[in-house]
Amino acid sequence: MCGIVGYVGGRPALEVVVEGLARLEYRGYDSAGVAVLADGTLATAKRAGKLVNLRDALAEEPPPAGTIGMGHTRWATHGPPNDRNAHPHVDCTGTVAVIHNGIIENFSALRGELEEAGHKLGSDTDTEAVAHLLEDELKGGGDLAAAMRRVCGRLEGAFTLVAMHTGDPDLVVGARRNSPLVVGVGDGENFLASDVSAFIEHTRDAIELGQDQVVELRPGGVTVTDFEGRPAEVTEYHVDWDVSAAEKGGYDYFMLKEIAEQPRAVADTLLGRIGADGRLTLDEMRMSDRELREVDKIIIVACGTSYHAGLIAKYAIEHWAGLPCEVELASEFRYRDAILSPTTLVIAISQSGETMDALMAVRHAREQKAKLLGICNVNGSTLPRECDGVLYTHAGPEIAVASTKAFLTQLVAVYLIALYIAQVRGTKWGDEVFAMVQLLERMPEKVEKVLETMEPVRELARSLAGERCVLFLGRHVGFPVALEGALKLKELAYMHAEGFAAGELKHGPIALIEPGLPVVVVVPPRARAVLHDKIVSNIQEIRARGARTIVIAEEGDASVEPYADTLIGVPAVPTLLQPLVTTVPLQVFACELATAKGHDVDQPRNLAKSVTVE
Ligand code: AGP
């Protein structure tokens, strides 16, 4: 959950590294630091707090100009976020500097050995031990890359390491196990970063690094080996979005931009997957029709918002594909004795493709011989490499920590998978699959229509800025939408918010209802009369106890009007597709309420975009 940048080339390294960090700050912003190698000396600067604090320190005391450098933005795991614990960390001689993303699980033992041997470690971090281990290895001769390989062989846990040494003045070395690291290949210059947004203004040619690999970056070239020093196979690719996509595009926050991009994101995720004949083609799943016909159970693993997408997927898969479907929190699945077999299809949903809980769940499933399918938004991330097939969402870079467009494209992806399995297995009449696919193609315009009617939602949000709690109710696919609405409010407005299945209300939660309490209710389409009428009764029950009812329902649904203090209309769509339109008002609501409270909605406190530690 940290941002890492490395550079070797002809430009002023400090400028390239700090601008790269600015694009990675969403990955963690407890502290930031840089190291530059110039005239045989290693200069470092680091500050607690956001990147702006480091920029101020560098302006006051600029390091010597050099063309080799690296930088780090931190999300603290070991040691409080302060100057002392900020990266880079150096060895006793000040000639080796290291930055790190991940957790070195055996760092205490290593630290004990180093201190026994006379090393002086000044921080609380696990990372600093690596600088001193490299120092010892370099004493034995050999270059920094060889030293790094030997040190990596001693480390346990997840790590991306980048190091520099005054003895190798044109070299930056990186190493990765589990945490992300990608190479940018330029002309006479090369880059290392946690993700491509750090260097795509300079180059869009990238190299995906694999597990347990060490990369040597010099201005003239890149060398990749495994931890034993053997040449490693790498995957080169071209990044298909430009730097402007990673900018705010005129919006005050990335989150506002990304909410507005949802119609395009939904359309892009459908692109190329629906044939002219209306049939689906999902070759990227890399599963034959026979394999799909053999599947007898689906288990979905994910975290947070992606988990909510999985909960919605369950309804779609059971209805269209006719397969039993379990949805598990990745962090729980891994420690459960789940019953898997080669005919179980495990679907891992992850926007970043780097969530450690999701990756460890996938590895757990792999050990049980299950088939693995990833749904991911980041090309070159770890998850796709760990799965048999992957269905990429095409939401574009999602910078804001709170997931919005990625969530809607995850829904599109799970709908496509469910319908594709139905098509292959013949569980639903072709005409129903065909009709649903046709409706999916119209969803971008439906989402656009919702976005055009959000001003009343913003006004409502501002009026509730002083509230301490908001509850969310839903039934069927509206229940995961209620969970997602609550999560958005928690992570953005730092408010207590809770989502419930409306049917559970009378089993306890109704005791929470008190006069004036805001309760958001997601109402199913009238076409699902039983579901619809039951939730209208729920609205009456809470209203009778004084709740302030905020109702999201199909435009023209007059039956809810008498019980809605605020009524938010959304376009009429089939029940299973309704989350695509009912989620958007909840995103706007949470974003506006948090803004009204003066919060930074792109970088909420305590959070990071990708949780790359368990
Ligand atoms: C969503 O708004 C949160 N930022 C968080 O719950 C996120 O969905 C979760 O950490 C999973 O991330 P992933 O999709 O990248 O795996």
Note down, in words, how this protein is organized:
There is one protein chain. The chain is of the alpha/beta class and 614 residues long. Helices cover 35% and strands 23% of the residues. It contains 19 helices and 24 strands. The strands form four sheets. Strands 3-2-4-1-10-9-11-14 form an eight-stranded antiparallel beta sheet, covered by helices on one side. It has a six-stranded antiparallel beta sheet with strand order 5-6-7-8-12-13. It has a five-stranded parallel beta sheet with strand order 16-15-17-18-19, sandwiched between helices. Strand 12 and strand 13 form a beta hairpin. Helix 7 (262-270) packs antiparallel against helix 15 and helix 17 (478-493) packs parallel to helix 19 (579-596). The radius of gyration is 25 Å and the shape is globular. Bound molecules: 2-deoxy-2-amino glucitol-6-phosphate (AGP). Residues 303-306, 350-352, 355, 358, 401-403, 491, 610-611 line the site of 2-deoxy-2-amino glucitol-6-phosphate.
